[in-house]
Amino acid sequence: MKIWFLDNGSIVIDHAQLQWNIGGGTAVRIPSYGLLIEHDEGLFLFDTGFDLEHTNRVLPFELPEQTPEQTIPAQLELCGFRPADVTALVNSHLHFDHVGGNKHFAGTGIRNLVHAREIAQARNCEPFEHLGYSDRTWDHEGASLVPVSGDFELATGLTLYETPGHTVGHYSLLAEPASGAKPMLFAFDVVYNQEAYGKGIQPGFHIDPVAGVRSIRRIKALAEGHGADVYFSHDMDAWHTYRHAPDCYDV
Ligand SMILES: [Zn+2]
Predict the structure, then answer these.
(1) Is 14 a catalytic residue?
(2) Where do the domains of the chain lie, and which CATH numbers do they carry?
(3) Which in 60, 88, 112, 145 has the greatest CB count within 10 A?
């Protein structure tokens, strides 16, 4: 399979959001990205970054930076694809910085897999979650939403694992190449960066901190059990070490 990291730009958050209760008052710029996986069974897209216009309008304090080349259609094109080529779109969760490009799939009929609890929560969230779920453009008339639940294999060697805490229906992804290459585990927002992972510290933003620490343990157990490398959603230092589209991991 081929795995591309799709650069969607960056936003700024407080360090206490990056690591719960730690280093508040320090602003940190973090990356936002999607993953494109070309597999024998289809072309799968995981998360679509943030929408620049929405973020500037609703969360301007996050100082979003995104060039036209960092939008989902432009990033797909870098890899040689168009939105209509995608077999299925999966969102790890429905926060604004993971769904901003979903709107580009409107009217294509492409299945959009999201945890059933996540869909319900995003439509009727707690007051403190309003900004997180503020981009509702994924929930459009022509969307082919497919509510899913439980751990399941999306395609051979591509498995989604329930990892709630940050949100009620958060999924992480394990990619196990048939070639025998080292498996890649995408924790998404279970932990934002390598340091938080090492210390077992969840993001400042969460709906269930007990589930959140259990999900960190789950990621660690999966990484150990499968001999996988863990990739972090919002770690600028780690991001600079990853290959970015059009370069890919051909595994
Ligand atoms: Zn996020």
Answers:
(1) no
(2) 2-250 (3.60.15.10)
(3) 112
